Amino acid sequence: MARTLDHRRAAHPRRLATMSYTNAEGRQQLLDELGSAADAIAIAIAALGEAYELLDEQTADRLEEVLFRPAQAASGRAKRTYADFAERHGFAPRVFDTGAAGHAAGARGHIDHAVEALRRADDELGELQDSMLPVEVGDAEVRAGISETRALLGPLPTAARELERILGR
Hints:
- It is a single chain.
- This protein has 169 residues and is mostly helical.
- Helices cover 70% and strands 2% of the residues.
- The protein has helices at residues 23-54, 57-88, 106-130, 133-136, 140-153, 156-166; strands at 3-4, 20-21.
- Helix 1 (23-54) packs antiparallel against helix 3 and helix 2 (57-88) runs antiparallel to helix 6 (156-166).
- The longest helix has 32 residues, at 23-54.
- It is elongated, with a radius of gyration of 17 Å.
């Protein structure tokens, strides 16, 4: 039986499509959204790696502690959520690519780029949570994985801003 999705939110410029879907199509859409968020986190990790290379040792160590390792934890949780859900429902596994940092001016520019990517990932996961997909075609494990990933992402933009305050001193 097909279901209908309608989950529009004014706060997010990107929207999951309103459509009818089968369980398999809904699960694939859920995986696509999880994969997109994991890809955004990978971009953030790459940008943080570039910033790390441009900083003095003490500041680089702080970046690793408050941003890089937590972003890696969020990435790992998102990928594990994807892989476990795909396996439980008979979908092929996915190999996630390493993100590309893109061009930025200095360490601050790379950190800003990372924050944008982390916010994008969090927004995508938030929109997915707000949709009915995780309830209608997901399971408790995927809902928990999405929540845990968002909990790991949540403090990172503030941590980045705090780190940026000490840059250039």
